[in-house]
Amino acid sequence: MTHAQWLRARTPAAPPALVACIAELLAAHPEWESLPGAEAFVAASEELLRRVLNGSAMERASALDLLAADACVTYAFEAAADEPQSIGDRAAHAKRRIAAIAAEFSTVSRP
Question: Is 18 exposed, middle or buried, given 0-12, 13-18 or 19+ CB atoms closer than 10 A?
């Protein structure tokens, strides 16, 4: 099962626009299929967060990317639930990766 198939199988189903946004991103990164689901969804959340921070976060178009980034973190932990002993380490790793993005963009001067 691909990560996009796994996503589409979730119940209750997420809003179609949210699923489409995430599925399109997963399709654009076929290399993520070799990653465990938790890692693939964290990578997707990072990419979506970068999109928001690279653009104008105040624009309405960024709202879907921001919601999708949040959803990807949730999906990462749903996927990781099959290995509960690894949740703590995965959470710490995801936190460091996302914090690094925030730090990267906090040093960029904005117009």
Answer: middle
Angle at 4 between CA 3 and CA 8, to 5 degrees: 120
Helix 87-106 / helix 61-80 crossing angle, nearest 10 deg: 160
Instruction: Give the number of domains in the chain.
Output: 1
**Residue 17 falls inside a structural domain:** yes
Residues in Cβ contact with 72 at an 8 Å cutoff, skipping those fewer than 6 apart: 22, 41, 42, 44, 45, 48
Q: How many CB atoms are located within 10 Å of the residue 5 CB?
A: 10
- Mean pLDDT confidence for 77-82: 86
Give this prediction's pTM: 0.85
Nearest to 14 by CA among 41, 34, 33: 41
pLDDT of 67 higher than 60: yes
DSSP assigned state of 60: T
Tokens of 16: 């179609």
Full residue range of the structural domain in which residue 77 is found: 3-106
pLDDT tens figures, 5-34? 999 999 999 999 999 999 999 999 999 999
